[in-house]
Amino acid sequence: MKSSASIEADRRLRDRFLEMMSAERGAAANSIAAYRRDLEAWLEFLTLRGVTAVAASTDDVRAFQAEAERLGLARSTAARRLSALKQFHGFLHGEGKARENPAAIVEGPRAAPRLPKILSERDMAALIAKAREKAETAEGAQRFKAMRLYCLLSVLAATGLRVSELTGLSYRAVMSGDEFLLVKGKGGRERLVPLSRAARDVVKTYVAVLREQVEGEPKYLFPSHGAQGVLTRQHFALELKALARAAGLDADKVSPHVLRHVFASELLAKGADLRAVQQMLGHADISTTQIYTHVQAERLQEAVARHHPLARKGKGKAG
Question: Per the confidence metrics, is the pTM higher than 0.85?
Answer without folding.
Answer: no
